[in-house]
Amino acid sequence: MSHYTKSPLMGQMMNQPLLISSIIEHADRYFGDNEIVSRRVEGDLHRTNYRECHARSRQLANALQSLGVKMGDRVATLAWNGYRHLEAYYAVSGSGAVLHTINPRLTPEHIAYIANHAEDQYLLFDLTFLPLVEAFAAHCNTIRGYILMCDPDRMPASSKIPHLMCYETLIAQHQADYCWPLFDENSAATLCYTSGTTGNPKGALYSHRSTVLHSYASAMPDALCVSGRDTVLPVVPMFHVNAWGLPYSVPLTGAKMVFPGPALDGKSLYELFESEQVTFSAGVPTVWLGLLTYVGQNKLTFSSFKRTVIGGSACPPSMMQTLRHQYGIDVVHAWGMTEMSPLGTACTLQSKHGALSEQDQQAILETQGHVIYGVDMKIVDDAGKALPWDGKTYGNLLVKGPWVISSYFKNEGGEVLQDGWFPTGDVATISADGYMRITDRSKDVIKSGGEWIGTIDLENIAMAHPAVLQAACIGIAHPKWDERPLLIVVKKPGMDVSKAELLEFYQGKIAKWWMPDDVVFADALPIGATGKILKNKIREQFKDYTLPSA
Amino acid sequence: MSHYTKSPLMGQMMNQPLLISSIIEHADRYFGDNEIVSRRVEGDLHRTNYRECHARSRQLANALQSLGVKMGDRVATLAWNGYRHLEAYYAVSGSGAVLHTINPRLTPEHIAYIANHAEDQYLLFDLTFLPLVEAFAAHCNTIRGYILMCDPDRMPASSKIPHLMCYETLIAQHQADYCWPLFDENSAATLCYTSGTTGNPKGALYSHRSTVLHSYASAMPDALCVSGRDTVLPVVPMFHVNAWGLPYSVPLTGAKMVFPGPALDGKSLYELFESEQVTFSAGVPTVWLGLLTYVGQNKLTFSSFKRTVIGGSACPPSMMQTLRHQYGIDVVHAWGMTEMSPLGTACTLQSKHGALSEQDQQAILETQGHVIYGVDMKIVDDAGKALPWDGKTYGNLLVKGPWVISSYFKNEGGEVLQDGWFPTGDVATISADGYMRITDRSKDVIKSGGEWIGTIDLENIAMAHPAVLQAACIGIAHPKWDERPLLIVVKKPGMDVSKAELLEFYQGKIAKWWMPDDVVFADALPIGATGKILKNKIREQFKDYTLPSA
To answer: pTM score > 0.90 for this model?
Structure first.
């Protein structure tokens, strides 16, 4: 921060850097015996606490130091949500090295590209990913050793992975006497690559400062509202954007943590929610779809689950209503992105909304909400001119804040900011009182006759139809209008609906010229590594599609 | 922060300083029409909102600039909790000058000393304080102008105060076109002097960074838990330690703010709580005593008040139970000090405490709680050796954190830290799971036969007696035991209790050797400028007191 003007009178407060290690130290000192429960790859439930987590993190930090890992070196993980992954979070960043979380849903080629680009020195991975690591290890140029996160008796008898070590054997050789170093809070802490649907994947390089500030801000009552009275199950993966910061914000409050491991199907999640009495969770809509399907089919209820944050993609209003009205679970709609650590907005009501009707409150709760203090946003037209906050005008969404990137790792993609603001690639409206609604991705919006059609609205309406499981809307080239909407629909198992019925369902809900020109039924939609529907794949698939003439 | 080692790899996040101006900008942009209601010195209720507050803050910033106020200059206030005081908070600090809040309960001599020591350039003050300002203005060497916070028609026809200006006339001459400057976040923002019961008053000089971090931390669910769904009435004064940070943490959440002005009696507060539907408040025990007395005498109830933070002094358990059980108001016991911005700890339960009995939960809630993430604490003996966390061992309490001072303004009092820790002057125990309990001030603790007797425990037991309104316990010199406890008691109006009955009331509640040697009944106890009982005055009063021989 040194390039800003200093006042002739500086404050006289303690000069203490904001470091990730302070979180696990705090959790140990004040919440040492609070539980961390993990469903392991092996299938069993493992129980530990913040005190042990801190001790084992320091053992791992000592081990990494003995392996020659230095400040600023990248150490990669390829792992599910679990206690060993949490230990790696603190050991790597806390010691001044940089935690590079790799998304295991990427292809081996993709992973090798990222690992080489990041110049990873070591890779820690879960047993599940042994075949995956075997598939790409030979293509990694910088990795000096592979650490399999398991007990000695689960190590493979032989493997073609070079320098393969056992995590438990490794840390058992080291004491917990490690002292977390103090260093500049702007030092790099973690590295996460964007899914990279276009061009090469690009890395967001978070600092200790940005991570700690994001932890404070995201824990606040109008954001994730994380408290020591909660039991938190992060469904969002620790291998992507740090599970929305929960591995930091949960320990600092002392809340009980429950990790689901690889078992993200409806049945496994439901059983874990109930057995551990989870009160709060966070995930993308597709996960809740699976959970709700299971719970609905088996006529179950939740005994402790009270609140969930949904982000990653817009939550279909129908799902929000089911969670709220059928199961009594409050939904906080949130929005962010890899480049924002990731949280930018959360949707909560204010005192003044208490007087609104249930329906008007619902309309607000379906937006992505207002920015979390620290972040600021605006919408602009293609020329960069600020657009009005009227809840109707569509514009390109720009953000700034201390947990937003200024550039990508190794300056991939060059200058990314526009006058100091980060262009999100989202199209949004903002209401007069600052509630933002994502209407589309810039690259997904359908440009028809010079006007924009938001595909998310069209998809949400389709999803509200009782026979529709999933829907995606894309623009198809049109000789007269430039582009026109095509709707692709996956029906619920055992349910039926016709094209005519579906289009009839749109009547009165949209402007007439927004009506999809055609509907196609599909068995499934392509889903990406972060759980989002891959519209570019759908566009590729339908690139030669001809719309019926009107 | 620059003296810390930089990693070879720095994060690539936006370089954005943490500045107080960003709070009011955020409140304007996202919660612009949310209300700020103030009971004015004039007696009426004034209504404004965050948008107007931001505009008027910028007008004031322009006005101060035109008066020659520069970055780092001190601008003082002598004012109650109200909207104009809030404007001054943002205008002064936001523009890079330093807000010096003066406690009007100090003597004119005391105020002149502080104003001269701070080298205040201007003083903004409420109409109430006109006689006070007239009493000390002639003794202030550096103040170039006095700004009376009122409408033009309330200005005095004549006054001996030099360079007296009208606030409303002044800001009306300026536009709201002021742009908040960006500068180093470690720049000084506000200055607050300790009440200084011994030696000269000493100034705590907060920075923008410390204030913003304190705002985030104190708003979290396990601290003050400030949300946009609250209506907040800070009874704690803005003239002392920034009203526990509420003038910052409330606007950043968009909560409706209600300022009580000078009307802090039970009736006025109760009426304001009800008419504005206040949900959350914060204050010292003496204020709640007044409110509860009024509410009890008139057999009233609260229709919206749900939660309060009590600090400044330990809250008597009996008051906590009355609030909780009789009125359904949750009490969060908090602890801090001027040197800590001020919040250090807050007392909230964790998941694991859900299984405890009501009584065991109550015992935890009566402690000062655990530190808010960012602060760390320890207890040490007189030689500086760390003492065990067993909930029993008494020790000197030391703290550190980014919102704790490193030294006093102008280095008054010299080096204050002990190995990087700030000695609080409190004596405390810490339980195995990190709950801290203040047992005394170091200077109040009674040293009897080489052991320590905590006066707060003795006072709390007395306060639990139905006939006792207030109690204070001091050590009286004793030939054999060095010191022995004397209890001074104020009875409730119309109630009676004898010395023998009171001592009988202690039976079974304390170790036998803790029993007060004598009880004295008084009409009132001396209260200091910050609402605390002045034990040094009581000790002065009883310095020649002779205890009855056993």
So the answer is: yes
